[in-house]
Fold each of these.
Amino acid sequence: MSNSINKLITIERHIAENEAVYNEATGEFSRLLRDLTLAMRVISREVRRAGLNDILGETEKENVHGEQVKKLDEFAHNIVRRAMNHGGHLCAMASEEADGIIPIPDVYECGKYVLLFDPLDGSSNIEVNVSIGTIFSVYQRIDADATTPGKMNDLLQPGFKQVAAGYCLYGSCTNLVYTTGAGVNIFTFDPTLGEFFLTKENHRMPEFSPQYSINEGYYNRWDESIRKFVNYAKSEDDNKSAYGLRYIGTAVADIHRILLHGGLFLYPADTKNPEGKLRLLYELNPLGMLVEQAGGLATDGSQRILEIQPETIHQRRPVFMGSKDNVNEVLKFLS
Ligand code: AHG
Ligand code: MN
Ligand code: MN
């Protein structure tokens, strides 16, 4: 742990103290982040009681991706929406669990930011007590002075324009990890106090680790270059040991492990998912910004994730992200 272990500081205090550094100090951005942490607190509470509060299981609905919506997905989506739509800091939202733009209701003011989020990442793990998380991404709207409702082009910005990104991971403890473009900070939730405390400031990830993370069950659906890389990862000789394989199946949990311990996360294109599976706006851009801010790399194999110009809010993309040297290594197989 870094020097920050000595400093007893809550996330609200941290946001307020840092606001002047990265914003023109209107307070709007701080309020936005504070409202988001409220949503995370509520979702965390509900996740912790998931087996007790009739919230496990599926709804009757399918989402825009054709996946069965779990009750907890829908619950988390509505908590974020309700925490964020009335603060006056957003002009539009988009969520993995909603078809189009989520407008700000007419009765509330529109502000200069947009929010994109994956309310619960790792749905397939909800019922088996494995880590799940909420991922978020914040941009300034294109015309920062406008007070009108946000439009689609405000949501379709490349990831390098994010002004904040982060996630809340509901694991063996609850961690909130965020960046505003000035390093990665990690907070841990104390459920008895209802507060997130800073536990790691300006976190840097290892430059290399002999670990990879991929759903290897799809081996026969991959391009030859991915198979060659995975064969290499498993190979052993006098100069190299086999890499360890870790795959949780919750992208945010796999990336959290890689942020802390290093390694490579892959979700390549395959014959069933020609664009990969993960969503550019709700998963790859925010996770990519965090990984880059911690010293790592995020690419789709030919382009930096954060430079992709999105065309639709729900689009998917192949991804290779993690420690710098791990990403450069897999890129040699892809070229
Ligand atoms: P979500 O639950 O938000 O739909 O995302 C699930 C994603 C991601 O978290 C994970 O990395 C991936 O699905 C796992 O997919 P496979 O089951 O195909 O490995
Ligand atoms: Mn997801
Ligand atoms: Mn989701």
Amino acid sequence: MLTQKVEKILVTQIEKEAYSSHLYLAMASWAENSGFEGTAQWLYAQSEEEHMHMLKFVAYINERGGKSIIPAIKQPPIDYADIRELFEQVYKHEKYISGSINEIVGICMEDKDYSTNNWIQWFVNEQIEEEKAVKTIIDKLNLIGAHSLYLFDKDIVSMRNTGTKV
Ligand code: OFO
């Protein structure tokens, strides 16, 4: 059984994961319309992954006797100045999500909910991987000039195709 505090923070996370999926979907659409097909593919895949994260929270809360609430999702930004700004926003968002996951760990410890603490560790590790992947992309962008963006975009596709965690 979940404590009230643990249930409340897990339900809040459903909305955050749903928004992540929505945000990356909007970014994918922007990238597609801006000619960055590889980046669009990467972002569509990220959006699906975030949707799966949301479902994990829904299932876990219900399994543990809580009540999952499916929230309204706010409108993500429509436009970006350029591809660099887009990835900076992804990085900022992932760091924000890592902070939320850490808060969940904190509440689990306070309420001595060691089962949920154990369950949430998957997300702790996932966030390390996601932050690392986005940081790698930003590092690549910082190394190249504008004329090389086409090659960069192809490189992002290969990151997905070779199974590099993104
Ligand atoms: Fe960005 O990964 Fe969900 O939690």
